[in-house]
Each structure stands twice: as C-alpha cells, then as structure tokens.
Amino acid sequence: MAQGRRGRVQRFSDFLRENVLWLATLALLSFLSGFGQTYVIAVFSGEIRAEYGLSHAGWGAIYAVATTASGVVMLFAGGLADRFRVRHLGALSLLGLAVAALAMWAAEGWWSLLLALFLLRVFGLGMLPHTAITAVGRWFVASRGRAMTLVSGGFSLAEITLPLTFVLLMGLVDWRSIWLGMAVALVIAAPLVYRLLSLERTPASQTAGDSGAAGRGGRMWVRREVLRDPVFWLLVPTVMCPALWNTAFWFHQVHVAEVKGWSHAALVASFPAFTVAAVSASILSGWLVDRFGSARLLGLYQLPMALGYIVFAFAEVPVVGVVALFLLGLQGGAHGMLMSTLWAESYGTRHLGAIRSMLGALMVLGTALGPGLTGFLIDSGIDYVRQGWGVVAYVLAASVLAAFAGRRIRAELPRR
Length: 416
Fold this sequence. Notes:
Layout: H1 2-32, H2 38-41, H3 45-52, H4 56-77, H5 86-106, H6 110-139, H7 144-151, H8 153-170, H9 175-196, H10 223-227, H11 230-251, H12 253-260, H13 264-269, H14 271-292, H15 303-314, H16 318-347, H17 352-379, H18 384-412
Helix pairs in contact: 1-6, 1-8, 4-6, 4-17, 5-6, 5-9, 6-7, 6-17, 7-14, 8-14, 11-17, 11-18, 14-16, 15-16, 15-18
C-alpha cells in the first residue's frame, strides 16, 4: 500500500516537473485576470459611486452595459484561441488589460468610465481566463483535471490577495493611483509571458486536421451543433449561476457590509475563507474529474452555494459570514473545475475555443445581469441579503436540470 502511494506521488511529481513552465505561465495569466474581475472592481465601488454621483442601480446599470458589450465581443473574439498561439493571445490580452487600467486611472465622465469597464471586462473577465482555460483543455487530456487545479490556483490567489491588498492601499493612496500601478504591472508581465511560452506545449494549436480528443458520440462538435443540443440548454442555468449571484455579492460588497452592520474591511477579511474552500474543492474535484469525468458531479456540486446563502442570511457577526463564504467557495472551486473540463469532455477539443467563447459569453451575460438586477432591487428596498433566498431557489432548480444533463452526457460518451 505504501509503495502504491509513493508511486502516485512520483507520477504527480513527474507531471509537475515536465509541465511546470506551461502550468506556471497559465497560472500567471489566471492571476492577472483578477485586475478585471468583479471582486477587484467592486473594491472601488464606494469611491466610484461618490465621484460620479451614482446610485446602486445606476452603478449597476453602467456595469451591466459594459459587461454585456464585452460578452458580445467574446462571441467573436473567443474563436481566436483556435487559430493563434497562447503566447500571442496571452501577451496581447495583458496589454489590452493594461490599457483598460489606464482608462480607469484617467476616466473623468461616465462615458469614459463605461469605456474603461468595457475594456476591463473584455480582457480581464474574457480573453485572459479564456486563453488560459482553453490551453488547459487542449494541452492536457488524461491529466486535464490535475492541470486545471494547478492553473486555477492563479484565480484563487488573486481572489485571496487582491481585494484586501487594494482595500489597504486605499488607506494610503488615491484610488486612481492603484489603477495606474496595475497598468504598469501588466505592461511588465506581457513580454515575460511571451518569453516563457516561446516553446508551447504540444499541441500548440488545434486545426481542422488535428485529431484531438473526441466528445460525446465519438466526434468533434462544432458550435452550431452545440446550440442545437438539449444538454447544452439544460446546463445554461448552471453555467450562469455563480456569474449571476456571486458576482452580485462581490459587486455589492460595500452594501452587504452596511446591511450587516460590519465594516468593509471586516467583510473583505473573510474573503480568504472563500478562496481556501475554492482551492480545496478545486483539488478534490480535479482528482474526481480525472477518475470519473465531469458529468457525474453536475447534480451535486452547487448545493453548498445554496447552504452558504442560507447561513449568510442568519449571520449576525463576521465569523459566521466566514462560514457562509467557505460554503460559497466550495461551489466556486468545483464550478471552475467542471466548467473548464466538461466542455472538452462532452464536445471534444477541436473547436474548443469557439465553444468556450459561447459559454464565456453566457457567463459574461450573467455577470452583467446580476449586479444590474440586484442593484435595482436594492434601490427598491430589498437588500441583497434578503435576495439570497431567491438565489437558493435558483441554485436548487439549476442542480436538478444539471443532474439530467449529466446522465445524458455519461450515456453518450465514448468508451476509452
């Protein structure tokens, strides 16, 4: 038994040693995408609303418009991952995000704020994660879950460090100066990523002639076929679930702290619980994915999110909020893993970039609708904590639909 455990450890160490360059670089892309994610942008919500004279609904509406527009762009831009090398897309996306950060630093009127948010969402929410995750799905097949666990560590590290770092920095410098610092960091990172990926892992790109790994029915699906697939539509509520509701939570974090009577810093200090849980769930689900496939987990993994919102509704002190965020993190980590591996498993890898761009657009749409809808309800007198009961109902319904989808996927997967 001990010898078997040593063999498994050795196999993992071999995998890590052979792939550390690619995994670390993709993790870096994942980490830097945090500059355009809601959990970072929302840190500055109070300052932005005060400077531009925006209500919760007004701020949410601008954010929704910018995010929706970025989702439309991703429908077309996401397919670039099927045609261009990761080092090109990664470096250019970093430079694009640097321009977005500069735009936030320089924004004066609401229209320039809208443009800056649009660019942040295109490159931070869209192209950087899309490039990293598509590369994992294409470069790794038998070890896809293990690779995604390591690469998603970049997302988790950003979640656990960036919000609290920027909250603390705002006590020392003007909020615009922080965005200028982000731009400088991204400009430095772009050539570094290009250099690190000068030799890309095989296959470096996927073309119509490549065999790749087939999906359901033993074939490679194209995007129009996915759109006609009932399984895809059963999974749409699951795809959008954390984009809708966790994004809204991060976006309205200042409001949530006020409703609970906690300081903003106290709430942000509990965010590491989310990340610790997400990392743990990602590791566990990566192990399960490599052994049993993604489809078997679809009906169960969202349930901790429902429980987390219930706990948060009753939380009176920040320490209980930590428990709630831990539960949300369990779902978040598993969701990131499954949504990164399921599509290659179900639809094959040949057109993975185009398919994932469509899925990415759905998630972007969720991140647009969540803050806008919940901001309207907040202004109507229904605070986000009370809105959590609606989130619980949504999660339970989505889990039932996902369970049906998982059964269909398992029945149609080729035997390997």
